[in-house]
Structures are given as C-alpha cells and as structure tokens.
Amino acid sequence: MEWPDRWYAWRNGDGCPSCAEGRPDESSTGVRYFAGEVADAYLLRADIQRGLSIVVWRGRHVVEPTELSDSEAAVYGREVMAVGRALETTFSAVKMNYNVLGNWVPHLHTHIVPRYADDPRPGWPFPFPEPDPPSMPQERLERDAALLRAALAVPAGDRRLADRDLRACDAAGD
Fold first, then answer.
1. According to the CATH classification, is domain 5-117+133-167 in 3.40.710.10?
2. What's the Rg (C-alpha) of the chain?
3. What is the reported pTM?
4. Number of C-alpha atoms within 13 angstroms, CB side, residue 4?
5. How many CB atoms lie within 10 A of CB 46?
6. 45-55 residue pLDDT tens
7. Distances in Å between the alpha carbon of 98 and those of 15, 55, 85, 113?
8. H runs (alpha helix) in the chain
9. Is the Cα torsion angle 14, 15, 18, 20 positive or negative in sign?
10. Distances in whole angstroms, Cα of residue 25 to Cα of each of 109, 118, 144, 155
11. Domain ranges, ordered by start, for the chain
C-alpha cells in the first residue's frame, strides 16, 4: 500500500484542507473553543471521548513540528499545553495523551485525548472506533465548549479555584 497522490499534494501545501479552511469558529468536525496566536483548538463533534480535541497550527503550511523555528515551536507548545491543562482540569482526566500524527491530513496538528478512570483500555493507546460514532448531542457540545472557553480565560495560577467552580457547574449540567 502506498500513500495516496492527494496526500503528497497536501503535504506540499497544494489544496491542504487545514490551510484552506482558515480559522473557522465551527467546522464539520468540531467547534473552536480556543483561538491562540498560532493555533486553534476544536472540540470534536464525534461522540468518541469527552473532551477529545484537535489543536491545529494556523501559521504557514507546516507538516512536521521540526519545520517550526524555535520561537514558533515554543508558542505552539505553550498553546497545546494550555489547551491540555484546560481539558485535564475541566473534565477531571486521570491521564492525557498528545498525538502529533498527520497521517490523514499532513498539516501540523495535535490530537489531545483525555483519559478517564473508566477508560476502555487503560495503559494502552486510546482505541478509536472505526468508523466514527455519531455526533454528540449539540447541547453537550456547546456546554463542554463553553466550559473549556471559561477554563482558558482563567490565568494559570488561578486555575485551582476556578477548577472547583467549573466541576460544580459541569456536575449540575449532567
């Protein structure tokens, strides 16, 4: 099996879907809850795992993190970590997975997968279903995105107090 011709074109930046979409508030796959200096974070619509997100590099077309300058890599890394912290504290994840793949769309992005106490496969990579399940209920998608936006609006040093309030708000909504 070989990589498809389309993938090579996208890898070269020709018709790259991530570049072409710009920085939308919503896409067919997710809702943006973070717009940073160099990256956007999207909460995925597919009801796979609560909080499953993708952070997409929004500078020039880049496939691998090694193509970033040191300063670009530092900003991207800080933004990925900010999103990861918000996911971890908002949804009380027991472990976080950060996957930089690009095997389907060769444009720098990081899949952030919160793992929970009732995880389907503790100690192993997350078992993504094939094909994707249906979308989560729109009300839950909007509520979770709002919780994440609120968490990201709180300075890092103040997160412990805000985390308690966000979990209480979330528990009331479930």
1. no
2. 16
3. 0.87
4. 7
5. 16
6. 999 999 999 99
7. 26, 10, 12, 7
8. 5-11, 17-20, 70-91, 138-153, 159-173
9. positive
10. 17, 31, 15, 23
11. 5-117+133-167
